[in-house]
Amino acid sequence: MKILFLTRLFYPHVGGVEKHVLELSKILLKKGHRVTVITTKHDDLLSYRDTVHGINIFRFKQPKIKYFGLLYTWYWLLQNKSLIKESDVIHMHDVFIWYLPFRLLLPNKKVYTTFHGQWGKYPISLNDIVQKKLATKFSTGNICIGDYIQKNYGLKADIISYGATKLAKKFVSKKKNLVVYVGRLDIDISLPLFLKMLKRYHDSNHGNGIKVIFCGGGVLSKECENYGEVLGFTDPTPYYEKAKFCFASGYLTILEALVHKCLVFVVYKNPLQKDYYTLTPFNKFIVIASNPDDLFKKFKYYSKNQKLTEKRIEDGYNWVKTQTWEKMASSYLKLWNLQKI
């Protein structure tokens, strides 16, 4: 079958959605399907047409001008409508608005959507709600990455998923004083709350006993340097392997940390973020805090109680090792009614 994915950003750009589409595509290729991805040309050094891991990639330069960027996207898709017409499955990743005119022009064409959500932005904008409701109405089926999307956007999910990960290739001796943070170093997620906790930890004379590695980049990079080493966007695997603790934000980071046997700490700052973490099957395997003081107390507690820490780590690993990309691909094939193909 010919499968077409549309996503705003894709490999080699780093991010959760980008990795989701990449790993999913690899599995689908192994199953004998053909995969094409339409995405934006986020870097001028990239080619407009490319093939990566057998995935056909078509990129276009989207103008960063409100409304005009969307109009140009529609124009580009119209010029390349053969990609849509020849595809058996068309699947959007949070960009259903790109496809909206073609839903009207090609009413018999089945189209699907995955909602990855914007859990860092609160309150939820009216525009975001309207776009997701339109996508739900005009999609043949949908997948929600997280049950919080149903609750906070008022949507009905056909399938709910929480992402996937690869099994760890090896386990090495953990450094009990090493903490890794993986993700964007930005304000709209919970990083400022982690930094407040680290400040209190250092001020209480506990901080000299831990080392923090930040795998990521963003506007808070300089501030993060006050508490540890900032490596930028780099492969976090070597640090997952060595770290006993992980400060996480997104689902992908949480799953990757669990599969490398890290104890994961998260903290929320609004009701949306609270739902993001608590409405999950893995909430009992991670440590969820409601503010920096709560996080400080829980981090100190688990740092001292090794048996309880090891029990939670092992329980989390036993759950997450079943959350494979093969399982994720099966969910997509089920949505498309292609399980036996």
UniProtKB/TrEMBL annotation:
Question: What superkingdom heads the lineage?
Answer: Bacteria
Residues crossing the lipid bilayer are: none
Q: Name one Pfam family in it.
A: Glyco_transf_4
Molecular function (GO) terms for this protein are: glycosyltransferase activity
Q: Which InterPro entries match?
A: Glyco_trans_4-like_N, Glycosyltransferase_grp1
Q: Which residues form the Glycosyltransferase subfamily 4-like N-terminal domain?
A: 14-145
This one is known as Glycosyltransferase subfamily 4-like N-terminal domain-containing protein
Organism name: Candidatus Woesebacteria bacterium RIFCSPLOWO2_01_FULL_39_10
